[in-house]
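Issue: ligand-bound run for threonylcarbamoyladenylate - logging full I/O for the record.

Environment: standard queue, default settings, no custom constraints.

Inputs:
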Amino acid sequence: MSNSPILSNCSAESIQDAAAALKAGHLVAFPTETVYGLGADARNPSAVKRIYEVKGRPSDHPLIVHISSIDQLDKWASEIPEYAIALGRRFWPGPMTLILKRTSLAGDFITGGQDTVGLRVPSDPIALELISEFERISNSAIAAPSANRFGQVSPTSSMDVIEELEEFLTQFDIVLGGAVSSVGIESTIIDATQKVPTILRPGAITPEMINSELKTSVKFVNENSDLRFSGSFPNHYSPRAKVILDVVPSYGQGLVALYGIETPDGVVRLASPSDSTEYAQCIYRAMRTADQIGLKQIVFFQPPNIGIGLAIRERLQKSAMGRKKY
Ligand code: TXA
Ligand code: MG
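Outputs:
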């Protein structure tokens, strides 16, 4: 196909090419340990505009800026509380995003016009190398949402990205191939603009981990908050198949449940994770597989509500609200 994006392997050279493509205003999808991201130069408004076009996402919905280390934090953020530094030191590189007051480097086109910016240092080695190389040649960083169409299932492999976005990318955009995402769900988002940190989106950095690091109790976002956060729209994380929670599955339905739970006759077992960590790794894959083989319904037995189980349940409950158009 003439306009198909380049699926690049990850030699040092291809990472340099990808950084150069970003600098030229093109898009680069890249692996991270949570889910794959769709990156653009965080200081280039027209490149960032293309992210919104490719995703089909409303432009007031802010993007996370990906930086290579905590040393870059004060370029993008100001008024950084001590607890944010403590969290960054402890959990970066890793699956955590901090929302902080922005500096003038973070334009309205990144923050959706808010005076805050989301920042994350991912741990995936390809992501880190790409970001470092891009920072070196540009004095910027990489703005990236998950590399899926708005409201749909996040991609956890480069093939997922291609399947999801190929028709919207140009021949100058690049999809960097890498490992299957090891965490499997999006980062924990923490609002670090207040005295006490607040979890806006749960993830692999759990409340228990945050509390034990800070020796305080992290808060959870109030549903009525005016902050725009992931999942504040009803149709997040939704496959075409209907997601149903915690009922006995019937003939022809898909099933995801912890290992040891039996599969009734005629039910298609999509995954049997042995614990919540494995459960997180497989939920989006299971949803994609269900769509690929044409299942109409998937039953998920939710994992216990502790640790990363909290984040899995949040995603599944949003998925169960179904796909909506607006
Ligand atoms: O794991 C992740 O976070 C992945 C990888 C690629 O890093 N990224 C990701 O991005 O999930 P996205 O755009 O799909 O979800 C990020 C969420 C959005 O829902 C956005 O509303 C929220 O982060 N966000 C970003 N900046 C924000 C801000 N300044 N205030 C409140 N929420 C913000
Ligand atoms: Mg997303």
